[in-house]
Amino acid sequence: MINPFENALLQLSRANAVKSFPVELIERLKVPNREIRVSIPVRMDDGTLRIFEGYRVEHNNARGPYKGGIRYHQDTDINEVKALALWMTMKCAVANIPMGGGKGGVTVNPKTLSKGELERLSRGWVRALSEILGPRKDVPAPDVNTTPEIMDWMSDEFGKITGDTSGAMITGKPLANGGSEGRGTATAQGGFFVFSALREKLGLPESCRVVVQGFGNAGDHAADLWTKAGHKVIAVSDSKGAIVREEGLDIDAVTAHKKATGSVTGMEGTRTISNEELLALECDLLIPAALENQIRADNVATIRAKVIMELANGPTTPEADDALFARGVHVVPDILFNSGGVTVSTFEWEQNLKGEHWTEAEVFDKLKTMLEREANNIYDTAQMFHTDLRRAAFITALGRLEEAMKS
Ligand code: NAD
After folding, report:
1. Of 56, 165, 209, 400, which shows the fewest CB atoms inside 10 Å?
2. What pLDDT does residue 2 have?
3. How far is ligand 1, taken at its centre, from the CA of residue 361, in Å?
């Protein structure tokens, strides 16, 4: 099994090999400031007690409070959370927001829990970790399988324990309870701003054939946004499989089909294929938006996309990065391409602290300005160092972390 934390460390040292940073900085970033495992007892609906394993990794807070989502997944473990936390440190530095990197998780398949059990588990996670959480300390958010409703339960639990009802301890909340306009689509929207800034430079046509792996919060909004902008989304997938239609998919119809049947697969007028086959489709742009380690040494030769833009965290392994770079396939890295999520989360935190509510136009105007600037900056850095965009993004982040940690 590929250990995502080892891959994250490899990415760090590979960037440092292109532009050398102080040894002490790199050594500090190789280990999280703190990693915490907790047991969360939950009374199940049938009266039995189940103990779940939960995590919070606080990687680095030199640039601000720890920030990062909470993942509920049956395969989540401490190494995955450590990798995600390190990437959050890098991502916040790339986006140039005043946040550090953290991440949380619970090893659980939430689809096997009732709503009540899910609520008790979520409140239990906050109870177990309330001492380290807080608006100026550590600010979680949603990730895979966690929703605005779960953020709301967590925010409520934190308020009950600490008396802090500002809502600023967690982001991704529902609009009615302190959420930000635009947070739901922010990850995909941020990706779209990066895509628009780099499309011509990366040699992509005005109208692209797009493939999206993963049809969750990040992926379904991406499919929708690219379609509305005049591109053709020819295939999408979820954990059960993929669908393809060469003439382009009707994304509203796919969303309705998924809502009705629980999966994108089997939709009328489309061909159902596997996720491996989806990754190998010929297209201009492949957007992985599911989980890590999807494009690896063993399947990279099958990839026929011209450009890959990572909406998921860690979908491409370092070996695959090298093979793609050698073939001239650009990979726009996660720490730039999906940074719209944490950027709008930071806007939400700022609005909560100031007691403000910004319009969607204000949110997206700020996001666009920030991400276009950073996308161009990272592209220029890659050109300057004759390297790939991932190393260039790490170099940008490391420069900012060096400044913060020096002072
Ligand atoms: P989600 O739970 O809403 O959706 C995940 C999707 O991936 C689902 O459609 C699921 O069926 C699918 N999936 C799971 N396993 C799969 C597999 N093996 N093959 C294909 N599809 C599979 O989660 P999300 O919030 O959309 O997150 C997806 C990715 O984007 C994660 O890597 C996450 O860390 C990253 N991300 C999310 C945000 C955010 O704001 N939600 C921000 C930054 C990065």
Report:
1. 165
2. 85
3. 26
